[in-house]
Specification:
Elements lengths: L2 E10 L2 E10 L10 E7 L6 E4 L1 H9 L3 E2 L1 H10 L1 H12 L5 H56 L1 H70 L1
Parallel strand pairs: 1-5
Antiparallel strand pairs: 1-2, 2-3, 3-4
Helix pairs in contact: 1-3, 3-4
């Protein structure tokens, strides 16, 4: 039975968390496993790896074959380096002391490299956070300026309102003042007509007076 060291998926959709397990190569990915060796969480930056170093190294030395992702994790944690040194000790190329010294030196260099990477990530994150904060502050200041600009014209509009009302009333007052003059102009022709009426009657009565005077003259002549 071939034993594999691989990842077993857990967690919710879009945010997986993997358990590092030693399992039978014939079992399903999320099926039964032989032993839990650690956990891998890729949702953090950098990724969080928790691993039982001694048990994982023991499985590797017994011939367990890691999957590609599990092998990358084991290299990162130094297990594959430790295996390489122990194989050298078995073959007599190194003494156990030399192998341990080399491993400690490798782990120290690895720790320095990891610290630099973490510092770089933190500096980038802090810079991005500062830029976001600056942008949010600028937007907040702009909104406050817009609100202040909108609130300034309101008192001026209230002061201008009475003047507008006076201007609206003024034409009505002028119309009322002009009304008597219009009536006077309309009444003028009637007065003139009345004044002219007696003259017309006088002209119409004149022929009758003359006719009566002519009749009187005719009777006088007959007598």
């Amino acid at each position: 039975m071939a034993t594999r060291i691989r990842l077993q998926r857990h967690g919710r959709k879009g945010r997986p968390i993997y358990t590092i397990v030693a399992a039978d190569s014939r079992s399903k990915r999320d099926g039964r496993n032989i032993e839990n060796l650690g956990q891998y969480n890729p949702n953090t930056n950098p990724a969080t790896i928790r691993l039982d170093f001694d048990r994982t190294l023991d499985w590797i030395m017994k011939g367990a074959v890691p999957s590609d992702t599990a092998k990358a994790i084991l290299k990162y944690k130094g297990i594959m380096m430790k295996k390489h040194l122990l194989v050298g000790v078995r073959k007599g190329a190194l003494t156990p002391e030399q192998a341990e010294d080399r491993f400690e030196k490798w782990m120290a260099d690895k720790a320095v490299s990891i610290d630099k990477t973490v510092d770089s990530i933190n500096s980038v994150e802090s810079k991005e956070k500062a830029e976001r904060l600056k942008a949010e502050t600028a937007v907040k200041d702009q909104r406050a300026a817009d609100i202040a600009a909108k609130s300034i014209p309101e008192p001026l509009a209230e002061e201008a309102a009475p003047e507008a009302k006076d201007e609206e009333v003024a034409p009505e007052v002028k119309a009322e003042e002009a009304a008597p003059e219009v009536k006077a102009e309309e009444a003028a022709p009637e007065v003139k007509a009345k004044e002219a009426a007696p003259e017309v009657k006088a002209e119409e009565a004149a022929p009758e007076v003359k006719a009566e005077e002519a009749a009187a003259d005719a009777k006088t002549e007959e007598s």
